[in-house]
Amino acid sequence: MPFLRRLLGRNNGHGSDHHVGAIAPPAVPAAPVVNRLVNTLAQDEELLPVPVVAWSVRRLQAIFSQLQQAPNQQALEDAQAARMCFTRFWLSAPLDQLETLYAGPIGQAYRLMLSGVLPALPLNADDERWKAALSQKLLKAFGSHETTNLLLAVLPYYDLNAMRVADPLRQVPEWLQRDYAERCDPQLLDTLRQQAASRQPASSAGPALLAPSEAQPAPRPSNQTLPVLGELRGEAGMALIQNNEFLGRMSGLINLYAIDPGDAELKQELSGLRRQVAQVWLDVDTPQLEALYRTPFGQLTQNLIASGFCREPLPPEEEAARRQLGLIVSELSHARALNALVAALMYYPPSKVNVAGVERSLPSWLVKELTTLKTRSASS
C-alpha cells in the first residue's frame, strides 16, 4: 500500500463503476465515551474518530513531481492519496488564514498539483463519489462562508475548463481569481488582464522588482516565507555547486536556448534546472553569497540571467513564487532578503530591478553586479 494511502487509512479501488452521486465518504462510528485518561496504544487507535495523518509539504511536492516526470501506477496512487490529503486540509483550514496559506509553501505545492497531469486523469470510483459530494456541497454553499474552502477542495478533481463558478468576481476571492481563471474561465482571465493593464502605465509593461522607496503598496503576508523552488535542499543542493555534470548540462541548455528559444522541450528542462539553481541561492548562508557568485556556479547564474529566459511565461506555481520573492525583496526586511534578490534575478528582467535609494542597504559587490547585469542584458 502506498505511503500516503497507508497514512490516510484509505483503500482506493480501481473498479470500473464511475457512477456519480452526491455520496459522502462512509462515516466513521463515533468513539465511545471513556472515563480514563490513559489507554494502551492499540485501544487508543480504535477510539480515534479519524486516522492521524502525518504529512509534509515537501513530501507532497515530491509526489506530484514524480507523477509528472516518471508516471507509473505507484506514482499515480501516491498522487491520488496526496490530493485527498490536500482536500481534507482545505476543508478544515480556518477562513481567515486561507489567503496566507495559499501564498505560502502549502499553496505552492497545491498549484504544482493543479498544473500537473493529475486533474486530467480519470478518477477511480471512490474519487468520483468524493468529487460529486464536494460539487453538490459547493453548489449549495455559494454565498456562504465555506465557499472558498470547498472551491479549493474540489478544483484538483476537474480538468482545465471543466468547471465554472457563477459570478466569479463575487464568489471567488480576489487573491484566488487569477489562478481560478487560468484553470476554469478564459473569459474571466481576459477581464482580469484588461483590469491589470488599465491600472499600469504603458511604460511599465512587464514584471518589475522595485526598491522599497519606489514599490507600490501591496498586500503583505502576515508571515513572510521564502518559496520552495527546487527538490534538492541542504547538502544535496549545495553539492550541485561543484557538480560538473549539472553545470555542463545547464550551460548547454542556456546556449541552446540562445539558438532556438522556441523549443518547448528545451524550455521545460531549463525551467526545472532554473528552479534548482534558485533554490541553491535561497539556501546558501547569506555571508557566502559573494564567494559563491565568483565561482563557475555564479558565472552560470549570470549567464542564465542574461539569457532573457526570465521573460518566458511561467506556470502558476512559479508565478506565485516569483511574486513571493518580489514581496520579500521590495521590503528588504527578511533575514535572507539578499538571497531572495539573487534568486529573483532569474525571474525578473534586470532592467526591471531598481535599487535607487537603497544602495546603502546592499553590499557594494551586489550593487556593482546589478549594474553590470543591466548593461549586459541591454546589449544582448
Could you characterize the architecture of this molecule?
The structure is a single chain. The chain has 380 residues and is mostly helical. The chain has 2 domains: 3-163, no CATH class; 209-379, no CATH class. It contains 19 helices and 2 strands. It has a two-stranded parallel sheet. Helix 3 runs antiparallel to helix 4 (73-92), helix 4 packs antiparallel against helix 8 and helix 6 packs antiparallel against helix 17 (316-331).
- Measure the end-to-end span: 53 Å
DSSP, total strands: 2
Give the number of helices.
19
Detail the poorly predicted runs: 1-45, 200-223
Mean pLDDT: 77
Largest sheet data = 2 strands, parallel
- Give the helix level as a range of percent: 55-70%
Secondary-structure-based class equals: mainly alpha
Q: What is the topology, as strand order, of the major beta sheet?
A: 1-2
Provide the succession of SSEs: HHHHHHHHHHHEHHHHHHHEH
Q: Write down the domain tally.
A: 2
Using only C-alpha atoms, the radius of gyration works out to 23 Å
